[in-house]
Amino acid sequence: MQWFGINFQHNISAARATLVSFAFLAGSMAAMSFTNDPAGVAVSDSTLPEKGFKSLFTNNKFDATKPYSTQLNPRAVSFVQEYIRKQGKELERMKTWGRPYFDLYDNILAVYGLPREMKYLSVIESHLSSGLVSWAGAVGPWQLMDYEARRFGLRVGGIGDERMDYYKSTHVAARLMKELYTEFGDWLLVVAAYNGGSGRVRQAIRKAGSRDFWDLQYYLPEETRNHVKKFIGTHYIFEGSGGATTMTAAEIEVHKANLALLEAQPSEADAANTSALEIGGRYNSLVVANHLLIDISQFNKWNPGFDKLLAAGKKYTLRLPKDKIAVFEAKKEQLLIESVRALLQSGS
């Protein structure tokens, strides 16, 4: 089950999307009526998916009310940033043309009590391509090997190879992932086992003395290790916050400043004694703080990411002591001129 990249022709995928949407309608009706899976095995929402990403997030599960990046495991950050640089724009486009496929996946994964985020495994396996065949013989959007497909009742080989059928292959992939989760209890380990086999993951767990992916990763083959990290990167791009998914290295710094802004909640005393106003322009924090006679560390505490966001051409909500607001308004043109002059002199 190996993914070779994401340089397939999207016009082919887009054309297939219409067909998939019809399959989704039919599949939805069938899936909605299930009390058992296609093989007669009872299914329920018993895998507790919210706990299964404990290796991915610092707090063991994702809290949708908080910025995604602040919860991402620090050991994943560097890989995710590089992955965004290489694949972000392509995967952003997939959010649109891949919607019929994702709708189909979401519906089927829900039947098995699996988190919908596991659909991203199909992204890194095949780029949602039904016709992909790997060097090892894995086939279809979920890159199923022939022995796994047969084990779950799919017809294999020739033009009628059901591994290429989105609906049927997704049911099999879901059953396989559910089986792996029952054993390993962590979705990142499910991804590792899906790629490299359960035996390799068991061996890595024994050698590392841990079931945490970040502890055992170096006991896994490099391909499997990177497969998991591609899943993490894809998860971030689709589940993370908006435009952060297509950033350059410089833009990533701006995004970090944005996150700092989101988290910088003023204390009750600060909120009572300060006011905020929206500004735009290439102001410099040192120039503003010096002219308003505000300690620079206090200014930065009130206004995290001030220089980076204004340098990126963003609007900024400036927080100042209430008695300094009128002073800023009176001097803002002079402050802007001096800020630009200081920036030119510093070469920024």
Structural overview:
Residues 115-215 form the Transglycosylase SLT domain. This is Membrane-bound lytic murein transglycosylase D. The protein has 2 domains: 10-246, Lysozyme (Orthogonal Bundle), CATH 1.10.530; 251-346, no CATH class. Helix content is 59%, strand content 3%. The protein has 18 helices and 2 strands. It has helices spanning 10-32, 49-52, 68-71, 77-97, 99-111, 120-126, 146-151, 166-184, 187-196, 198-208, 213-216, 222-239, 249-263, 268-273, 285-291, 296-302, 306-311, 322-346; strands at residues 274-279, 316-321. A two-stranded antiparallel sheet has the order 1-2. The longest helix has 25 residues, at 322-346.
Approximate helicity band = 55-70%
| SSE topology string | HHHHHHHHHHHHHHEHHHEH
CATH topology of the largest domain: Lysozyme
Mean pLDDT: 77
CATH architecture call of the largest domain: Orthogonal Bundle
**Intertermini distance:** 48 Å
Reported for the largest beta sheet, the result is: 2 strands, antiparallel
**Count of structural domains:** 2
Key attributes of the depicted protein:
348 residues; mainly alpha; Lysozyme; 18 helices; 2 strands; 3% strand; elongated; disordered N terminus
